[in-house]
Amino acid sequence: MTVGVLALQGDFVEHLSILESMGIQTLEVRTPEDLSKVHRLIIPGGESTAISLLLESSGLKRAIVERVKAGTLPILGTCAGVILLAKHVTGKNAPSTLRLMDITVDRNAYGSQLQSFDEKIRIKGSSKPLNVSFIRAPRITATGKHVQVLATYGSSAVFVRQGSLFAATFHAEVKGISAVHALFLDA
To answer: Among 64, 91, 129, 141, whose CB has the most other CB atoms within 10 angstroms?
Structure first.
């Protein structure tokens, strides 16, 4: 199995590092041709507007949507990746999204870079809490009926699943934590 990491902008290197430490074959995805070579895809955190524009100009947006609709591309989105997967985005200057997950996301809901924080969360089915980072994080404000909440922070869903799509508003990869990746790969 080859796991692709969208490498247009953002913290893709950290995701590649985690996957490689797990012994997973990886590929940096920058073109539709790259995408055709992977079995799963991670959309990393970064600047959602920049990634959205690059998805469109590279032809990846259409290629990703087609593969997901065909049932051949599981995706894990983190932070900006959650925004890009969402059907609905609120907040200032919301980017064009892939509209694949039945969730509503509020951009930068926890504040600016200065309001970023670390927090311990517990993923459903796990006995051990994970210390993760919320960096200019979005907040999932609504979930559709087919969306399963896997973790919460306060009253907000922070890790969700809809079929083969996973979305985490936090960053586990910046702490070197592989539990989220392992769950995604096992699904």
So the answer is: 64
Q: What number is the average pLDDT over the span 144-162?
A: 95
Catalytic center residues: 79, 171, 173
**Can you tell me the distance from the alpha carbon of 186 to that of 69, in angstroms, rounded to the nearest whole number?**
20
What are the two backbone dihedrals, phi and then psi, of residue 52, each rounded to the nearest 5 degrees?
-60, -45
Instruction: Indicate the DSSP class of residue 115.
Output: G
CA–CA separation, 107 vs 148, rounded Å?
21
Instruction: Indicate the DSSP class of residue 167.
Output: E
Domains of the chain from N-terminus onward = 2-186 (3.40.50.880)
Residue type, 65: V
Residues contacting residue 111 through CB under 8 Å, at least 6 positions apart: 136
Q: Is 170 left (phi over 0), alpha (psi -120 to 50) or beta?
A: beta
CA atoms 80, 85, 89, 95: torsion sign? positive
Q: Are 176 and 11 in contact (CB under 8 A)?
A: no
CA-to-CA distance for 128 and 134, rounded, in angstroms? 19
Amino acid at 89: V
**Which of 28-42, 64-78, 116-130 shows the lowest mean pLDDT across its residues?**
116-130
Sequence letter at residue 72:
T
Residue 161 near residue 1 (C-beta atoms within 8 A): no
